[in-house]
Amino acid sequence: MARFDHVIVGSGINALVAAAMLSGKGQKVLVLERAGTLGGCMRTEEITLLGFRHDVMAATFVLFLTSPAHAELGADLARHGLEFCHTPDPTAVLRPDGSSLVLKTDRAANVAAFNALAAGDGDRHASDVGSIEADAPFLFALLGGSLWSWSTLKLMAGQAWKQGLRGLAAWMGRALVPARGWLETTYASPMVQALWAPWVLHTGLTPESTYSGQMGKVIAFALEAAGAPVVKGGSGQATGAFKALIEERGGVVRTGVDVDRIIVEGGKACGVQTSDGERIEASHVSASVAPGQLYERLLRDEDLPAEKAATDSFRHGRGDFQLHYALDRAPEWLSPGLDQVALIHLADGIDSVSKSANEAERGMLPETPTICVGQPHRLDATRCPDGKAILWLQIPDAPRVIKGDAAGQIETGPEWTEATREAFADRIEAILARHIKDFDKLVLKRRAYSPADLAAMNINLVGGDPYGGACSIDQFFIWRPFSHSVNGDTAIRNLHHIGASTHPGPGLGGGSGYLLAKRMGA
Ligand SMILES: Cc1cc2nc3c(=O)[nH]c(=O)nc-3n(C[C@H](O)[C@H](O)[C@H](O)COP(=O)(O)OP(=O)(O)OC[C@H]3O[C@@H](n4cnc5c(N)ncnc54)[C@H](O)[C@@H]3O)c2cc1C
C-alpha cells in the first residue's frame, strides 16, 4: 500500500493550490482526480471545431491573479508556462435598446464616463471603490482569511478600537445592503446601475440578496484595478502549470481515479479507498467535494449525526448554463466600443437581472435570461485560427430542476433534456443575434451545456450549481458549509474539507486550498 503525508481528493483550483504549497514544504502529496483531465472547472477543449480552444467552464482569472495563492506561487507557475492576457476594457453592459457602457481599468476615465451619464455618478463610483480600497486589509481578511482564528479576533478588536463598537456595527450594517439598495440609492444613471447589477450573479447572489451590494463594490474595485484576465492558451494551461510545479516539488498527480471512501480508524482519517478497491494510506486527507458527497458517500459508514443533519439542510444555488461559439470572423457589434471588452453583459438593469434570477430560483427557464458574453480571442489570439473568433457565454440563471418556462414557449419536464437545452440555447442566441451584424452567417458551430451537463462533467457541481452551494449569507463566511463549521476542520481528525463549498467559497482564488496549506505549516 502506498503511503503519503497528504492525499487530496479532487483537483480543482483549491486542491492544486494546496498540493503545490504543501509539496513545496517537503510534504509527500498525492492528488486524485476522478475525471480524465485535471483541474475541475478549469478545462480547455476543442469542443466545437479543431483549432478552436474553448474554456468549457471557468475563464476569468481575476480572483486568482489578486489572491495570496498567486502571490506565493505565481512566479513558479509562470516558469511552468502560466501567462495572463489582459484588456483595458474588462467589462461592459449592453442593454436591449443597444445603449452600452464600458468599464476601463482607468479610474479617471470611469469617473468621467459615469459623470457624463449623470452628474455625480462618477464621483460616487470613485467613493465606492475608494471605500473598498480604504477598508481592504479588514474587508479582504473577512472575505478570504481563516475566520476562526486569533488573527481575525485581533483584527475585529482593532476595528472596534478604531471605529468604536457602534462604528463597527454600523460598518457591518452597511455591508449587508442588497445590490438593489446600493445601486438605487447611489447612482442616478440606469446605465451605471445596469453595469453592476449582473455582476452580483457571479458571486452566487442576486440584486435582492443581503450583502450583494458589498460584493458588487468589491467586484467593481477588482475589475477596475486588475481587469478580467484570461490564461494564454486557456484555463487548461493553468492546470498544466500547476501539475508541472507539483511534480517538480515531488508531488504525485493521478487522473481517472475515483475516491469512493475515506478510511477512518479510531476517529482519525488515515487514507482513502478508490472505486477500483485500491487503498492509499496518508497522514492527512483533504476532500475538495460538496458536503453531500463527503458525508453521504465518502464517510457513509461513520456515525456523524450533526454533520449528516447539516448536510440534509445544506442548499445548492441556481444552475448555470454555458454556450460556446466558433465564429468565422470576429463579431461586429452593432453598438460601438465593445470590440475589446472581455465580458459583456446583455441586460437591461436591476429589474431584468432580478427577474431572471428569481425565475431560475423558482425552477423556471427565464423569459429573458441575463447573459454574459466573453470574447477570449480578443485577449488571446492563440485560441482560434487567424481571423476566426470564439465566444464564451455564461447564463448564471438556470433552474436545477425545471418546473416550467417563464415565457410559456418551451415544453419542459423536470429534467434537462437535449431538446430543452437546445431550445433554451435558441432563446439566448436570439438575444445575442440582435446585437451582432449578420450573426447567423458567422456561426460555424455552437455547443451548449445545461446544468445537468455541467454536473455530469464535475460531480461537485450538484444540479449544475457552479458555486458549490448557495452563497446566501446563512451559508457563507463562518457558516460555510455549516452553521457550526470551524475553518476547514471536520469531525474526523486529520480530515480537512476544502473547495467551493467551504470558506471563502467559490471562484478561482484558491482560498480554501491556500488556508489549508497555511494551517498545515506551508
Ligand atoms: C461554468 C462555470 C464557469 C465559471 N466561471 C468562473 C470564472 O470565470 N472565474 C471564476 O473565478 N470562477 C468561475 N467559476 C467558479 C469556479 O470555477 C469554481 O468555484 C472553482 O473552480 C471551484 O474549485 P474547487 O477547488 O472547489 O474544485 P472544482 O473545480 O469543483 O473541482 C473539483 C474536482 O474534484 C473532483 N472530484 C470530486 N469528487 C471526487 C472523488 N470522489 N474522487 C476524485 N475526484 C473527485 C471533480 O471531478 C472535480 O474535478 C465558474 C464555475 C462554473 C461551473
Key structural traits:
522 residues, alpha/beta, FAD/NAD(P)-binding domain, seven-stranded mixed beta sheet, 20 strands, globular, binds flavin-adenine dinucleotide
Characterise the protein shown here.
There is one protein chain. The protein is of the alpha/beta class and 522 residues long. Among the domains are: 3-38 and 62-79 and 233-314 and 469-519, FAD/NAD(P)-binding domain, CATH 3.50.50.60; 106-223, no CATH class. Helices cover 39% and strands 18% of the residues. It has 19 helices and 20 strands. Strands 1, 2, 9, 10, 11, 12 and 20 form a seven-stranded mixed beta sheet that branches. A seven-stranded mixed beta sheet has the order 7-6-14-16-17-13-19, with helices on both faces. It has a two-stranded antiparallel sheet with strand order 3-4. Helix 1 links the parallel strand 1 (3-9) and strand 2. The mean pLDDT is 97. Residues 9-15, 32-35, 40-41, 57-60, 63, 258-259, 288-289, 293, 320, 322, 394, 454, 458-461, 466-468, 499-500, 506-508 line the site of flavin-adenine dinucleotide (FAD).
Question: And the CATH topology of the domain at 3-38 and 62-79 and 233-314 and 469-519?
Answer: FAD/NAD(P)-binding domain
SS-derived structural category: alpha/beta
Name of the CATH superfamily of the domain at 3-38 and 62-79 and 233-314 and 469-519: FAD/NAD(P)-binding domain
Tell me the name of the CATH class of the domain at 3-38 and 62-79 and 233-314 and 469-519: Alpha Beta
Bin the helical content.
25-40%
**Largest beta sheet, briefly?**
7 strands, mixed
Q: Using the 3D structure, state the CATH architecture of the domain at 3-38 and 62-79 and 233-314 and 469-519.
A: 3-Layer(bba) Sandwich
User: How many DSSP-defined strands?
Assistant: 20
| Model regions low in confidence, pLDDT < 50 over at least 5 residues | none
CA-CA gap between termini: 26 Å
Mean pLDDT: 97
Instruction: List bound small molecules.
Output: flavin-adenine dinucleotide
